[in-house]
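#onboarding

Welcome to the new folks! Below is a worked example of what a typical request in this channel looks like: someone posts a single protein sequence, and someone else replies with the predicted structure as tokens. Don't worry about understanding the tokens yet, we'll cover that in week two.

Example request:
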Amino acid sequence: MELDFTGLSGIPVAEASTPAQGAGKLQRIADKAQGDKEAAAEVYKQHQTATIRAGQLVTEIRKGILSGHSVYDLLLKAIKAIELSTGESGLAAQAEADIIAVYGYALGERQPLQMELTNVENRLQKLTAAAAAVDADAADRIRRAIREHERERDSIIKRMERDG
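Example response:
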């Protein structure tokens, strides 16, 4: 029995590499592996930080229950712990906005309205401080934002007084 190797003639032959070329390729592989290790270490560090913070929030929730803290504050801390545990960024911020909209504006409950009032007043303070540190054109836009925030603050206060 005879073997036919004629089909092999169409296969391109790789050029032999020099030791310098081989060393360069190995260095690139080593550099990539090092970069991958560093990236993995950073992800692990972020995960550890989030896990520690979630544990702290659980402790705060337990203490808050025993101390009679607001159920809204406790719920938001629980959602923040879930956000940290799952990596789903923005979950706590969205939950807070939903609580304010549904329980505050729609159902007229005082605590969510107070949360929104605090948020508006914090933004108002930042805007007021920023207005003094920018050029005239930007200051004019910031003053308009300040007026809107003042209207929003007054509206929330009236709503809280009306709903008791």
